[in-house]
Amino acid sequence: xxxxxxxxxxxxxxxxxxxxxxxxxxxxxxxxxxxxxxxxxxxxxxxxxxxxxxxxxxxxxxxxxxxxxxxxxxxxxxxxxxxxxxxxxxxxxxxxxxxxxxxxxxxxxxxxxxxxxxxxxxxxxxxxxxxxxxxxxxxxxxxxxxxxxxxxxxxxxxxxxxxxxxxxxxxxxxxxxxxxxxxxxxxxxxxxxxxxxxxxxxxxxxxxxxxxxxxxxxxxxxxxxxxxxxxxxxxxxxxxxxxxxxxxxxxxxxxxxxxxxxxxxxxxxxxxxxxxxxxxxxxxxxxxxxxxxxxxxxxxxxxxxxxxxxxxxxxxxxxxxxxxxxxxxxxxxxxxxxxxxxxxxxxxxxxxxxxxxxxxxxxxxxxxxxxxxxxxxxxxxxxxxxxxxxxxxxxxxxxxxxxxxxxxxxx
Length: 411
Prior knowledge:
mainly beta, Porin, 2 domains, 12-stranded antiparallel barrel, 6-stranded mixed beta sheet, 25 strands, signal
């Protein structure tokens, strides 16, 4: 319906529209070609001129954004304001449009030289789309650069106990990443926090996390085989770093509050696979951390190893999958009555996030994940697996387009 209205609008301008007084082009008739389907778009980051071209009932101001092709002797022309639902000019300027050159003389010369003016749609930045009314909307999102706030239902199952269904989870945090050339991706996470409310509540919050993904210039190991034609196989060791500072973990289990402070964790990472842009990865990481068990008043050295992955599954960033398996063992800790000496922890998780819609160009996602853990470090708690399933929504307050987002001319 909107396209039909716009086509009627632009057809009404073809065949000679009287130019308005003032600086508008004079001496020749502005000729509008019949609109094409789909309407072409102005090219982003290429020169655009603006000024008064031809007034009409639909575009009283007569102001247009124009991009011309001298070889084809034609210009793409777009009203300088958004259009209303009935196809008439509004008072709202075009959002996220590139600056244009105010040059009435340039437009006058194009008209006098007999250029054909073609109805078009204004340009849009990468990852954004503009409709026939000139309204712009984001359709490409980078979930590795955002501020998020989410909530979920979080039932719990523990070995030998009844299911606990009256739990809810709140999570929030800030994450950003930035490439260092083409060989390294740096990632920073601040205030990564999960709060579980209800029975068997918990809090897990990390002040700062920093990690890198690296692509080596040359493979450190090259193996050549001589069975028939010589063949060479390259083996890379794309190693990076993973650092975490000030983590607080609080768990209420069996009427006891267990509190752990992790002051610092340092891991080396080894990418088993990563995408070309280093955004998605599957990797191993391992290293020690220094932990203080406030409940029992003891320090411990905690070596750990993790197998994990973070995968963006589509070019527009709508589908995001994460997984991980982690093992830790406490060392150099004194014996504590009511729990094992040198306790161990095992954790597994898998999660999927799907963008459902955007509110003011900020994505709202469906989040589904499952987790399990087995640990012997909780006071007066027998070892056993506990499982949780989480389903809820997450709102990203800032999620720019991905760096690989394409320019969109029509959809």
